[in-house]
Sequence to fold (553 residues):
Amino acid sequence: SSPAPELPTVSGLRKMGVNFTVSNKDTVKSSDVLFLAVKPPIIPFILEEVGPDIEARHIVVSCAAGVTISSIEKKLSAFCPTPKVIRCMTNTPVIVREGATVYATGTHADVEDGKLLEQLMASVGFCTEVEEDLIDAVTGLSGSGPAYAFTALDALADGGVKMGLPRRLAVRLGAQALLGAAKMLLESEQHPGQLKDNVCSPGGATIHALHFLESGGFRSLLINAVEASCIRTRELQHLADQEKISPAAIKKTLLDKVKLESPSLSVASASKVSLFTNKS
Amino acid sequence: GVMEAVELRVGFGGAGRMAGGLARGLLRAGKVPASSILASAPSDKNLDAWRESGCRTTHCNLEVLQESTLVFLATKPHVLPGVLQEIRPAVGPHHVVVSLVAGVTLQTLQRLLPAGTKVLRLMPNLPCVVQAGAMVFARGSGAGDGEAALLKSLLSSCGLCEEVPESYINIHTGLSGSGVAYVYLFAEALAEGAVKMGMPGGLASRIAAQTLLGAAKMMLETGEHPAKLRGDVCTPGGTTIHALHQLEKGALRATVMNAVEAATNRACDMAED
Fold:
């Protein structure tokens, strides 16, 4: 559901045959597993909106970065004594069924509930359960990770173009190189350091190139990136806990629209589009 | 065939630190009795320590050739051509000549010695002195499997000894010959860090050395990739990974690669001089 049906993602979903409604309440009533896929500052508002319709059977799954299980449980407990909450962190390659997803189960979610989510998310990539306190680190690594990879691929393609390759071919080859390397690592028992050594013949091209990467502090840049993303996630969580939402986070047009439909609510629109809008 | 250690008479032309280290290693390992070792040097300054160990000494390079079958040449590079000319008349087919002289190629050695002489070139490093050296050697055209096996068997008493193509010798200099100094630098810095955090310097230094020794021993004994061993030490979110991040920020890896490259290139340049 989304109060903004003109979103391009909505027509994409409809073409796939997904049922669509502008009413969040309708979505809740006709669902058992509920994915909340709104921006983190919007979560408190959507929980207040759908809270009254949450029943014991519902499994509420939040994909919002930095939003804790306890904050969701706290909000829902006003409406339902034992809300089943699962927090998950996934990433955009779920689109091509190569996602990386972790989840942590809340106080009232059973083992079977976790397993159900795991089954669902495993169909679109790798999925495993973790302790909730690791989820921010996961955000930094695999949540943001595809962006690091896209940046690297863009630059690798530039390198190829500089050395004479047509752009499209350079992009294709770069992507395949990373895909192949990742696949080798996942299928191998060996340490990535060993796999790297296997590519580096003495005095050859690759070791010369690697020296450049080391000189530029390639490794530390990646460590810095994961750290920065993780820390920022924690900051956002802190802001959310204090329920300080910047007005800019809520588009004015959506605000007005929601006000029209639910005069009792003070703010917020929600789109339950889980696959296409996954910005955090 | 391989000479029996008992019959082996070992000579050193030049008695400096490197020669002394090798001799000490051979003696400590009991490979050669001191009485079978003869060293020559222009002055007595270096020779006192040899005599104290029970070795024989002389000022005459020719005597070393006449008395020894296995002869190590360990002079300074600029002195070597003169020494080779001097000893050339006494060099015979029974001799095995091993040069430790930095930058002097097998080609040069063979040119200045009688045709067919069994010549090998050895690049050791300083810890040979404590039998924990890293040595590589390359054989000249006159040296065969027997000579290579002899050298390897003798020198394994001083540490790791491997035969290599001559082209690896300058790389060995950059990696391990000079490399020992990089390790001292690293050890000093480790200790300094500890001193900054409040530990006395002497204790910090001993612990730094033992840390390097222990880590190296684990690498050699487990045969595991150092990246894996590093990962084994890093508990998630712990002290080690925080420290490693600092090292990566400082581009330590690239700097070390630069050092090995610089020393290797310098060895190549000096060889051409």
